[in-house]
Design goal:
It contains 3 helices and 11 strands; from the N terminus they run βββββββαβαβαββ. It has helices at 79-86, 111-122, 141-161, and strands at 2-6, 12-16, 22-26, 37-42, 51-54, 58-61, 69-71, 93-98, 129-133, 169-173, 194-199. It starts with a strand and ends with a strand.
């Protein structure tokens, strides 16, 4: 049996090419980049690491133990593949808001982002939001984890008040992990005191 194991690619289209067997088409990531690869593993071939396929607009026939990728370019896509791409949802949108130190109060320059987010959401029916809170490195990690969750929840509450359905919003607090600007411990940094909102 053949398996596909993704290594950070955003989109893979699996199609059947008539009697020639299945084929695989790799395309760009959601953000337009082409980083990433795919490992194709066939247990009958005795190769636990499989064969690696990479590259945008690469077509690979998945027959035999040595799949051979072929770059086809966007111009050579089949009509049904073009149709698939045309009907894909728009890529995720990201909004970042910053906070006054040790609070859940938005920094003055971030207030306008609430309105921008609301306008974007209205134009995107069926969208879901993921809100992730962060802190800088001032304070104990446990405290910062709680504060980051409160920041995410604060933004969710404000969005719900504006009419966003609560059931399409998830929140997570990550504290002082995943710093946007790496700093030593106990260092104030406005760029790290933030929430990131992903609209999908």
């Amino acid at each position: 049996m053949m398996h596909a194991r993704g290594l950070s690619i955003a989109l893979v289209a699996l199609t059947l090419a008539g009697c020639a067997g299945p084929s695989l088409l790799l395309m760009n990531n959601e953000d337009g980049s082409n980083e990433g690869a795919l490992a194709v593993i066939d247990e009958k071939c005795g190769n636990p690491d499989g064969s690696t396929i990479a590259g945008s607009f690469t077509r690979t026939r998945l027959s035999g133990c040595a799949p051979r990728p072929k770059g086809v370019g966007e111009a050579a896509l089949k009509p049904e593949e073009r149709s698939l791409i045309a009907n894909l949802p728009p890529p995720p949108a990201r909004f970042t808001m910053y906070f006054i130190p040790d609070t859940t109060v938005l920094a003055p320059g971030s207030e306008g982002m609430i309105d921008a987010l609301a306008e974007h959401f209205k134009a995107r029916p069926g969208a879901e939001l993921e809100i992730i809170g962060y802190t800088d490195t001032v304070g104990k990690p446990e405290y910062n984890l709680t504060l980051s969750q409160k920041r995410a929840d604060e933004i969710k509450g404000r969005l719900v008040q504006l009419g966003f359905p609560a059931e399409v919003i998830t929140t997570t607090g990550r504290g002082e992990t995943e710093l946007r600007f790496p700093t030593p411990d106990e260092t104030e940094n406005g760029g790290n005191r933030r929430v990131e909102i992903i609209v999908r």
